[in-house]
Amino acid sequence: MNAAQMQSASLDQQMRVSRDFFSIYNQMTDNCFSRCVSNFNYNQLTKDEASCIHSCCDKLVKMNHRGMAIFMDVQTKKQQAMMEQVTQMEQQQQNQDQTVLPSIGSETKQST
């Protein structure tokens, strides 16, 4: 992969992260607004509405952090398991190669 492709991949990744962030932010905003705001007679939030929104956003942010922590823990364990599996497969392949090579060498000696 050349530098231009790596930069393009990095930019694509940044765009996905930004898109995901704004999607979560918009969902949270919509959810808390629908749940908490009921009085449209004033241009300011009432104390109850402000308190509800603060509580709602706080709860959703904590839930998101907890979910991300769980995801990262599970993902790390999956990656470790995959690495162990790859290592085992490589060892098995090396063992097979070592088993096959001596028998090939003995066959060529016998035929000469």
From TrEMBL:
Region (Disordered), start-end ranges = 85-112
- Quote the subcellular location field of this record: Mitochondrion inner membrane
- Residue ranges of every copy of the Tim10-like domain listed in the record: 19-69
Give the superkingdom in one word. Eukaryota
Q: Which InterPro entries does this one have? A: Mito_inner_translocase_sub, Tim10-like, Tim10-like_dom_sf
Cellular compartments per GO CC:
mitochondrial inner membrane
Question: How the protein sits in the membrane?
Answer: Peripheral membrane protein
Please give one Gene Ontology molecular function term for this protein: metal ion binding
SUPFAM superfamilies per record: Tim10-like (SSF144122)
Ranges annotated as biased composition (Low complexity): 85-100
Q: Please tell me where this protein is predominantly located.
A: mitochondrion
Which keywords fit this entry according to its UniProt record? Answer: Chaperone, Disulfide bond, Membrane, Metal-binding, Mitochondrion, Mitochondrion inner membrane, Protein transport, Translocation, Transport, Zinc
An example GO biological process term is: protein transport
- To which protein family does this belong? Belongs to the small Tim family.
According to its UniProt entry, what is the function of this protein?
Mitochondrial intermembrane chaperone that participates in the import and insertion of some multi-pass transmembrane proteins into the mitochondrial inner membrane. Also required for the transfer of beta-barrel precursors from the TOM complex to the sorting and assembly machinery (SAM complex) of the outer membrane. Acts as a chaperone-like protein that protects the hydrophobic precursors from aggregation and guide them through the mitochondrial intermembrane space.
Instruction: State the PANTHER family in the record.
Output: MITOCHONDRIAL IMPORT INNER MEMBRANE TRANSLOCASE SUBUNIT TIM9B
On assembly, the entry states:
Heterohexamer.
Per the record, the domain comment is:
The twin CX3C motif contains 4 conserved Cys residues that form 2 disulfide bonds in the mitochondrial intermembrane space.
Protein name (Swiss-Prot/TrEMBL): Mitochondrial import inner membrane translocase subunit
